[in-house]
Structures are given as structure tokens and as C-alpha cells.
Specification:
Length: about 500
Amino acid sequence: MHWLFGDQIGPHFLTPGDGGPGRNTPLLMIEARSVFRRRRFHRAKAHLVLSAMRHRAAELGDRMTYVQADTYREGLARAAGSRPVTVHHPTSYAAARLVRSLPQVTTGPARGFLVPMDDFAAWADGHGGKRLRQEDFYRWVRRGHELLMDGDGPAGGRWNFDHDNRQPPPRDTSALPVPGPYRPREDEIDEEVRHDLDRWERDGDVSFVGRDGPRLFPATRAEARAALKRFLAHRLGTFGPYEDAMLAADPVMSHSLLSSSLNLGLLDPAECVERAEAEWRAGRAPVSSVEGFVRQVAGWREYVWQLYWYFGEEYRHSNVLRHTAPLPDWWNGLDADAVEARCLHTFLAQVRDTGWTHHIPRLMILGSHALQRGWDPAAVTDWFHRCFVDGYDWVMVPNVVGMSQYADGGRMTTKPYTSGGSYVHRMSDLCGPCRYRPGERTGEHACPYTAGYWAFLDRHRERLGHNYRTSRPVHQLDRLTDLAQVLRQERARGDTPP
């Protein structure tokens, strides 16, 4: 038998060769209830994963054995007994340990990514395991896979169109003038999933957070392909300029919303980037937008996957800033109504209602707040894993430990990604109606991000003062005449909802 995990459900996981199953090899999927007991997942995420697994099992018919069990071990014993089983390399350390512990299971190479792990390890070792910057890796991938290349040079004459792709949102509009994203229609399988989740919660077997329904993200290959097609035809052209912008009433902007489909294995990254490049070559999308999308898929997503395995399992415990504060109940419960700061309220509500926000709210609103408050990075990582529909261990460990919380001290990024309210004001329409003012550090209208930013710099001034990217603002601390007041204010605020 060949065992498919719930994030290995696209057709590229069934092609023969290189550890793949034969064309007639029986297939196995295990729905393990214990997965949902270990963490308090977002209800919409649990729904999406179960819907995707059950849809795939229905598509594969008699070839698929679908087992509902308490644990993976129980399900495997029931379905396969002592027969040999093959599986593609799992996407987490926990799952990898599990399959290694099962003598009947043979593990083949990972699928669903552009670069084999051994190739990345050779590239990284060639850099001495240090300075593994995303930009260098991204250019290496572009060359190796001939993505957006004109001969030996980058398409459009530049590797990086970030300068063009960091525009603030258009003023005097509440939404980008683009067609909305693809949205699926639920069916009887979704109804069955929702019934089961209701029953599990009612029985006290599991507990979820957030709201569920209607399903917003693809659960089948056909739905994922329709979502990709709609993005390429109607939204790719405006993706680039506003990919870092935020609008309160337009959470999706021109983003692709394909991350959950990629991470479930419904889409292969190669087809996404190749079809995006084809749009540029056909003159239907600007190179800046296409490069921004290719950078996210072939650059950032691939980079995060590779670092997860290259850095090793201990990386998740990195905590060079020694942040140990627990997550407050209002945050864990996604209680957006407890929050007055408009930016934080808006995006915490989006997570509560959909299990998704785009990458800038994740980094510069949610992650930045956790960093400024000194919350335990392992707990923050677990929160992102549980509460986002596209969140998996391999996704969130590097993204949160390295990028968002700077807990690795710079192995992954050159500086902490946090800011005062001025950044939020420049890149969004969120500050105008807010009770807090981005330019005020103290008093009843003091922006929690502005005050929190200066308090964070002061707390880590010794470390950050020696970082060339943060030394200037650290030196500005001594010019703040109200710094002592800011620090008293932020200590008193603690983790009370801002």
C-alpha cells in the first residue's frame, strides 16, 4: 500500500517513480482523531483538511482505503497489518519520527516542492551554513529552474521588483477595483464534515477556536485549479503593486489565496509559477507582479520549507531575546471584540472568521504585536499553526521563529520585523478612525504599536544597537524626552487588550 498524509493529496503525489506508487498500488489515508486533540485548531482549518481528505478518497474510489481511527498507528495496523507500506517524506518532524518508527514503512523523497532537500543542503553547505539569505536562494532557484529568465539574466532586467511592489493602497477607496477571488461551493461531504465536527465538540472530545463556514478555500484539485485560473486571469496584474498594502474592508486585495491549496498538495508549485510566467510572456500581466508572485512561491515558500529541515528540530526552541510571556486569553480565544486598536481588531477578527489574513497583517500587525509584548515565541508559533488554514509545522516554525519573532537572532533575517504606527498608517487605511494616533507615544491616544516599538528597542538596545539595520533607531532612544514615561506606560499596559 501507499500511504498519503492529508497534505499529500494532489495528483503529483501519485505519479510512479522516485518513491511514488505504481499505477495500481492500493492507497491508504488515515483520519486520526488524536491530531485534533493535541491542539485547539481553528474550526475552519479542521473543516478544510477533513473535507479535502474525504473528497480525495471519494475521487479515488475503490483504490483508496480510508480509515477513521484514534491514531495513525491504530489506523495503519487496521488497514495494512504487517504488509509493506510506502509513503512520501512527511512535512513535519513529528510525522517523520512516526514513519521512521514503523518497520514496515519505507519513506521516499518529498514531493510538492521545487528543490530536493539534498540539493538545498549542498547549496547551504557551500555557504558554510551561514548567511542563507532568501534573495541568494531565490536567484539560485530561478536560474536552476529557468524561471523568469531571459538567457542568463532575469526577465525585465531585474531580479527584484520589491520597489514597485510596496505601494500603499489607493486612497479614497475601500477595496481594490478587481474581481473577487474564486470561492467554492459546499457539498454533501462538507455537510458530513460539519456534522462530525459538531458532534465531536458536543461530546467534549475536541475543542476548536474560531468560526467555520461556509468553506472559503479549495478542497479538491478541480477547485484549486479554478482558483489558480481566476487569480491568473483577473488578479495577478494588480497583485504586485499592492501585495504589502492593507485595507480594512478588503482583506483579500489581489492576493492569490492559493497557499492552502499548495500546502494541502492540491497544486504543485511548478504549475503555479510556470503559468504565472506564461501570463507575462503573453503580455497579460506586468513582469513586476509576476515576479512578486514567483518570489512568494519559488522563493519564500521553498526557502521556508528547506530551512525547516536544514536547521534541525531544535531550531523551534530558539529564543535569543528570552521572551517568555504567555499568550493572553483574549488572543488565544481570537476575541477581537476585546481589542480597540483598529488594526489589531480588524485582523484578529479576520483570523477568527476565516482562519486567514495575508502576509503583511501576519508579520506587521499580529506578529509585531507579539514581538513587542515579549510573548514566548514557541507559543506564538503554535498559535499561528493552529489558527491559520494554511498553517503547518514546516510553514510556521521558520516564519514565526525566524522571520516574525526574531527568536533565532538573525540566522534567517537581518533584523526584527516590527515598527511603530507610522508604518501601519502609511500602508493602510486603518489608522484614521482609530482611537489611537500613530504619532503619539504617551497618553490616552498613544498608539500601542508606536509605544510598543520604542519599549521593544529599549528592552533589547544592547543587541540591536550592534545591528547595522537597527542601530540608528536604537541611538534615537536617547533623544526621546518621554522615554521613561513610555516605558512606565507599556509596563502598566502589559497584555491588556490595546
